[in-house]
Amino acid sequence: QSVLTQPPSVSGAPGQRVTISCTGSSSNIGAGYDVHWYQQLPGTAPKLLIYGNSNRPSGVPDRFSGSKSGTSASLAITGLQAEDEADYYCQSYDSSLSEGVFGGGTNLTVL
Amino acid sequence: QVQLQESGPGLVKPSETLSLTCTVSGGSISSYYWNWIRQPAGKGLEWIGRIYTSGSTNYNPSLKSRVTMSVDTSKNQFSLKLNSVTAADTAVYYCARLSGHSGWYPFDYWGQGTLVTVSS
User: Looking at CA atoms only, how far is residue A80 from chain B in angstroms?
Assistant: First the structure.
């Protein structure tokens, strides 16, 4: 049972917009800690996609965006492409555990 | 460009010790926290622990009794030992760099991962 809750799967057609939610609590996201997102393509290591809630590392397309509100965060992907098919993980910090925590991951299928 | 590479046995017997090393290239190992994260097949990411270049460590409470991490700055390497392994420890093990000096920072560089299977 992950501290951060993500939907197991989402899907969308090419060109569409999809969002992936990450729900936490008052000891992590709700406490003001940043949320980071990772993309894990099949058979590869996770790659930092969004950091500090809404910032993109160099080289990440602006089709990917992040936001945070209250005890939740979201990753939005616009102009969906076949190459976006991957698992996506959110990460934050939990003050009750005194450690970083991951969401359970969301598998994105491009129809 | 910082690169991380895990190395170590791919097969470990039950009750024995899993040992992995991560070699950092393209940058200094100094002044960062270095982490181990694992992922069982088809499952999510589990943080194992981290070590600073001073040798200071933080471990996941659920694994703390079995984990030891060390660092060798002269070789730009850090290591993981997990003792008394069982089949539940079978996973892909990643090493990763924490981009800041606290647990709320993201992991900005990752190794490619190495599969460790626990089986007799």
Answer: 23
